[in-house]
Amino acid sequence: MQLSPATVLRVQTTWAQILGLPQESLAGNRTRIYREKRDSSVLMFVSLFEVGVVFGPKWAIEGARDLADQELASHAKLLEISAPHGGQPLGEAGLYFCDTVPSVPDLVPTVSSDPEHAFSLERACSQDDAAEVGLSEMKNTFVLLDDDGPTPLPLAGCGYDIWEDSLAHMGVLTAPGKRQQGHAATAVSIAAGQAMALGLVPQWRARTDNTASIRTALRAGFKHAGTQTTVLLNA
What we know:
about 240 residues, Aminopeptidase
């Protein structure tokens, strides 16, 4: 099942706002869009539903004009373009969205929205994993707990921030030793269901080399809709 036309339009409209474009820019457009920002701290290429957007300073716009979308989606290519301007790697990721309420198992562990449980889960994980997800910094968190012992232990957690009052930008973190047991998928299903109940469209961003994150998104019913590739620029 694909995303509904209404969801597609909403994603396009929201991302147009994020990129500082007229709301209708991404809808029905099949030509590349250039968004020049002189003092931009990033060079970014976003592709959504086969419409590409180059966002950055004038020199970046000019450097991208003769390149295909597939090339611009490459982190290496954006680093090459930005090398004379001090470009630093940030990431190459896929964008996924969901408009079907995910199913939740009949029996689930205790679910907590206490910020301390999000911090506890992060402390149990590597610094790199915790920093990439940023669970404790999210406004809405759902942490699964093993509360059979004297102290509840976090199994996995999913959270989201709200973008432009429309998208629920999600992230998930699983405790070491508790992976590949379905906990991440359960946490994602709970968080996505709560977000959709509030009228939000769940959004998932996964690095292209993070197969576990991509697999979790697809299992939860998210559909691949595009890419986001970004490098940092010297201000």
